[in-house]
Amino acid sequence: MEPAHQIAPDPARRTIARDAADRPTATDPARRAIVRDAAGIGLAVGIYGVSFGVLAVAAGASVAQAMALSLLVFTGASQFAFVGVIAGGGGAAAAVAPALMLAARNAIYGLSLAPVLGGTRGARLLQSHLVIDESTAMARAQDSPRRARTAFLLTGVAVLACWNAGTLAGALAGGGLGDPRALGMDAMFPAAFLALLSPQLRRPGAPTAAVAGALIAAALVTVTPAGIPIVAAVAALVPAGLAARRVRRGGAAA
Amino acid sequence: MSWTPILALAAASYALKALGPVVVGAREIPAPVRALLDLAAVPLLAALVVVQTVSTGGAFAIDARLPALGVAAILVWRRAPFLVIVLAAAATAALLRAV
What we know:
The complex is a heterodimer of chains A (254) and B (99). Chain A has 254 residues and is mainly α. Helices cover 69% and strands 0% of the residues of chain A. Chain A folds into two domains: 2-198, no CATH class; 203-254. In chain A, helix 4 (76-87) runs antiparallel to helix 9 (188-197) and helix 5 (92-113) runs parallel beside helix 7 (133-140). The radius of gyration of chain A is 19 Å and the shape is globular. With 99 residues, chain B is mainly α. Chain B is built from five helices and two strands. In chain B, strands 1-2 form a two-stranded antiparallel sheet. In chain B, a hairpin with a 2-residue loop joins strand 1 (55-56) and strand 2. In chain B, helix 4 runs antiparallel to helix 5. The interface between A and B is large, with 108 and 79 residues.
């Protein structure tokens, strides 16, 4: 679930549990740190799972459909995008495309985790479902493959359980709340996306990507069907990639 | 809401996750490709913010969502928890619409 960038910052960086894990003799404290962090991340994710449940129902999903999204799709930003586009009047295809583009990140995580996730083909198939922001960040924060695997599994299971418990609570509560617009629920979507976006803005090229993506979407929103402006915004990666390369070159020259 | 797109999204999301562990294994992908894909969520999220704040059904519409986003932006900047940000945005829009 993407907001964990706030909790388990950038998966590319080693932050969480590093202090404990780096101590050579501290096998047990390191494991305890992993369990503690995984539980903390799970609880935080559970709380915003509630907001997903509320929003999914407000967008017209049944409780069962909200649960299917959290159980089977199980990748936060994609789920928010999917119900957000539908709430905004978009069709199914228009909602799936941006959701999938947001989920493409998980493929990168999976590739980077592949050496860590041992076991049989069956075990890999099962573990693949747990490949998300939080489990990847926790795995990358460890100093040995064994601990990385433990961190990945514990975090993945904790997030899966809490995200779904939160979704169920939100979906059950959301249905009884009344008119979504009068409650300001439509304003929850952009706020959620802004909260998901902000921790990612520190990467090289990210501000360019955000501004260009926003401009592309604003230019297209009145002339294309719903969902297309969001998919088209991915073209912002061209100027963003160039900007990031300039930053890297500048860094190398300095 | 129809079940078909939900199940299609579930299948495709899973396929993306499983690509590395199941299909590719431990092979490396080039760093520039990884950097670009790491960045892919940024323009999409920015586009979602814009579209869902200032448009309704394919037309520009400025309403209570805009000040609500302003409140959310302040809370994001103050590093408030995710749920607080989202609820504060809803409360702002609801209050503005009630008065």
